[in-house]
Amino acid sequence: MALVLGCIADDFTGATDLAALLSRSGLPVSLRIGVPKSKRDESDPAVIEVIALKCRTAPVQAAIEQAREALTWLKEAGATRFFWKYCSTFDSTSEGNIGPIAEMLMAQTNARQTIYCPAFPENGRSVFMGHLFVGEQLLSDSPMKDHPLTPMRDSNLVRLLSPQVRGTVGLANRNVISKGSAALQARLQQLQETGVSHVIVDAISDDDLRTIAAAAVDMPLLTGGSAIAGQLPHLYIEHGLAAPPNARAHLPNVEGGQIVLSGSCSAMTRRQVASYAARSSSLKLDPINLSKQGAAAACLWLRQQPADAAKIVYATAEPGDVRHAQEQLGRDEAGHVVEQALSDVAREAFMHGTRRFVVAGGETSGAITQALGVTHLTIGPEIAPGVPWTFAEVEGETIALALKSGNFGGEDFFTDAFSRLGAA
Ligand code: ADP
Questions:
Q1: pLDDT 10s digits, 184-232
Q2: Of the candidates 304, 299, 312, 301, which has an alpha carbon nearest to the alpha carbon of residue 264?
Q3: 296 C-alpha vs ligand 1 centroid, how far in Å?
Q4: How far is CA 252 from the centre of its chain?
Q5: 349-366 core/surface letters (b: 16 or more CB in 10 A; e: else)
Q6: Closest residue (by CA) to atom 3 of ligand 1?
Q7: C-beta of 44 in contact with ligand 1 (< 6 A)
Q8: What Cα–Cα distance (Å) separates residue 192 from each residue in 26, 30, 189, 241?
Q9: Largest CA distance in the chain
């Protein structure tokens, strides 16, 4: 099947979220971790490709080069439309990679204009009069103001984006969007005639997103969060660019042992771990112990468990315990020993027949996929908004992986995940 859309995401779990929303349509979606070294296999059934980069906080030039490489691969794979995905909270450093990458992609795709649509109403991210809100708060009043890597101290997207790009930034506000896609197209045209190539679009509801997607579907490059991208597949089907899906016929049926691995310490993950540990065999990892003795004891424990038994290995801990480990080992080292141990356990589990893995934690997911040698994921059914089951080949075996970052999913996410797979 010909590729319709090529997407570039600025981080790993953002890419998973994007792939999940695109996949709601039932169209086959494929996710690559990093730019693939080899050309795309022509028999690949996916009509949408997502490439996950790790460039959100990279220096601007390095980020642009990563995105350029991704674009080249997607073009060679046959994509003619492109999507640049960043976070719905417009996470960028003061130098900012969102604008520079968009500008490079525009130049390379002959796009005279593009839109910026981070809104994700389902998750409380909306844009009104160019200002980004998280729930009822302006972005700059939300906890994002204190983010350790990308503190967001301004909510005005026109003002945020302007210093990041050479071209002129403008706004298509809610008054226009509410009049429908023809009105929006007219506004985009008018902005283009006055030299505006970067257009922030307001959106406070899924209806707004539908209007925007209908107006902008033919632009060679679109940019935004996963929610606007999620509106594109059915338009492709309507426009005859992609065939209607046939009930996920392409998804494999994965059997074999199961395990939950958690390195996330977010509030929701802590509840999920407590809930699952109460009904399965569980092993808690202590970073200080791991730094002295490595993961051998955990691997031994794993070998003693029946492959198909419900089990969880986790380093998930309360903030005070995390602080203690960080004081003893240093923040990076504490994270590193945990990621290394969970990676070792994942390898060990794979060697002993485990084929279904649920992983909690964005960085943790990155470490575990790397340890398993996974670079290509096929997107399967969604477990919770933004978290799909994915399938990958490891040493000739098909495995199922659910990769969940921080606060995603409800309290019973781990149990839900395995039952969703059984029912897929
Ligand atoms: P999230 O998606 O919730 O941010 P991540 O996996 O991205 O989760 O980040 C959590 C980080 O915390 C990882 O680097 C992990 O190794 C580290 N970590 C996990 N457990 C502990 C712990 N008990 N003490 C210190 N660091 C920990």
A1: 999 999 999 999 999 999 999 999 999 999 999 999 999 999 999 999 9
A2: 312
A3: 20
A4: 22
A5: bbeeebbbbbbbbbbbbb
A6: 406
A7: no
A8: 35, 34, 5, 27
A9: 69
What are the structural domains of the chain? 5-238 (3.40.50.10840), 257-421 (3.40.980.20)
> Counting Cβ atoms within 10 Å, is residue 247 exposed (0-12), middle (13-18) or buried (19+)?
exposed
Which residue type is seen at 357?
A: F
Whether ligand 1 lies within 6 angstroms of the CB of 315 is answered as yes
Residue whose pair of structure tokens reads 């075996």 in the numeric block: 397
Amino acid at 265: C
Q: Where are the beta strands (DSSP E) in 191-310?
A: 196-201, 221-224, 257-262, 281-284
pTM: 0.89
Determine the length of the chain. 424
Q: What is the pLDDT of residues 135-159, one digit of tens each?
A: 999 999 988 887 767 788 899 999 9
Q: At 83, which helix (H) or strand (E)?
A: strand 81-85
SS3 content of the chain, % helix, strand, coil (to 5): 40, 25, 35
Q: Do the beta carbons of residue 158 and residue 170 sit within 8 Å?
A: yes
Rounded distance from Cα 231 to ligand 1 centre (Å): 33
Ligand 1 centre to CA of 226 (Å) is 24
